[in-house]
Write the structure tokens for this entry.
Amino acid sequence: MTADHPDTPPKRQYAPDFLTELFRNPLDPGYADAAARRAEQGPRTGWRGASARGFALTTLVLVGFLFAVAYRQTVAAEPARGKARAALVEQIRTRQEATEDLEQRAAALRAEVNALREATLEGDTAERLRELEAATGLAEVEGDGVVVTVADGNSDVNAVTGGRKDVSKVLDRDLQDIANALWSCGAEAITINGERLTSTSTIRAAGEAILVDFQPVTGPYEVAAIGPDDLKDEFERTRSAALFRKLVSEYGMRFQVEQRDDLRLAAAAGGDLEHAYRSPEPTPPASGSTAPDGTSTPTPTTPTSPEGD
């Protein structure tokens, strides 16, 4: 026996080719042995075969029992869920009817207040008040103007899942841009889907919905405005109009500006009246007081008779 020379390289150790072996013998040796033993000894008989069949039967019965229990519980709970849903739907309907009744009552009271006010005020004061109400959005107005209509773009359908993907949707800030552009072009009154805008109005998003003064609005959105004769031409030249024309060409959104005659814009809901005081009756100035123009009011004197009379 001779020792290896220190300069002699070690022998290479080749690892077995597992991929080739897997394709050559795809069946695990244990399965092959079990099949050979079964071929030699035949199927199990006696207590071993009976126990195997009994175990399989017991498993099937147990699984079936679990499915039956789950189905019975689901069916038993369905009426309770249906009753709860029906109760919620009825509650929503009742609240909606109550809200509509309150709105009608508020409108009737508002009309009564306006009638009493018209009967009390006279002349220039009443006219000035009507002008202020129209400017602040608290009175219904009529006139010529424009209607800007915007709507969501087309939806792409996923060929695999069948779901729809919105390419472009109208957002709350889009309605804000349109309203601000109309104000800047000289609009005197604006509504969005019938909701009148005032100096305290809000346009914001709540989930998938757009709220105008806490009232949900849905597309297509119509922004109506009353203003000067050139309102349409002025709005067409704004950045907001140019942006929506681009969205129409790229994403299929709907954008239309129309000139309208005799528009009627409803009044906004009146502000909450917290305190009201009756105007005091004017009182004559006191004796010897100074009038607003700086002159003194003389104190009236009563003539007296001579002493001794």
Q: What stands out?
A: The longest helix spans residues 47-120. The first strand starts at residue 141 and ends at 151. The two ends are 174 Å apart (CA to CA). Helices lie at 18-24, 29-41, 47-120, 123-136, 172-184, 231-236, 239-251.
